[in-house]
Amino acid sequence: MFTFLMAVAAPAEASPAGQSQTICINSAPATGWMITAYYDSYLCGTPGSGVYNAKQVTDVRDTPPGRAVSACQMPPPSGFYATSWSYTASCEGSKTPDRLLNNLQSVTNLNGLSSGFTIVICGIQNAPSGWELLAIVAAYQCVYPRAGGLGQNAVSIRKR
């Protein structure tokens, strides 16, 4: 049986970009912040259950255009897109990880890039606004299941 603790820390508040802080597992990261690790913290109660009770979050809002940041699996902020997947134990929310899926994503800030910039983003999806779809591609860096096949799993896009 798992015990889930209610959050005792407030969600991340605005602070200088690149800053990290601990929030409790049931707290949502603030807009523009991404989860970078799960762990136990006495800030969030007594550790001991089968899941971690805290997470580290990092402010990614001021990531320069075209630069990538690494974060655990979660929807990225507006204008950021997954450009690769890999595995890390730090992104397993459970103390008994299944290690079946790549859970660390590299997300790239596409905001503010110049016309003609080309990039491959993971997932079969439409090109973001202001971008054109060049091709559906097979990209090794975008394999989500750890032992999964390659297949068509990404799109190549170019800034208009």
Give me the secondary-structure category: mainly beta
Please state how the strands of the largest beta sheet are arranged side by side. Answer: 1-3-2
The helicity comes to under 10%
Q: Whole-Å distance between the termini?
A: 53 Å
Task: Tell me the strand percentage band.
Answer: 25-35%
Along the chain, the helix and strand elements come as EEEEEEEEE
Chart the SSEs and their pairings.
Layout: E1 20-24, E2 33-39, E3 54-59, E4 68-72, E5 80-86, E6 104-109, E7 118-122, E8 131-137, E9 154-159
Antiparallel strand pairs: 1-3, 2-3, 4-6, 5-6, 7-9, 8-9
What does the model show?
- The chain has 160 residues and is mostly beta strands.
- It is built from no helices and nine strands.
- The chain has strands at residues 20-24, 33-39, 54-59, 68-72, 80-86, 104-109, 118-122, 131-137, 154-159.
- The strands form three sheets. The chain has a three-stranded antiparallel sheet, with no helix packed on it.
- The protein is flat and about 50 Å long.
- Mean pLDDT is 88; it is low at 1-16.
Concise account of the structure shown:
By secondary structure, the protein is an all-beta fold. Helix content is 0%, strand content 34%.
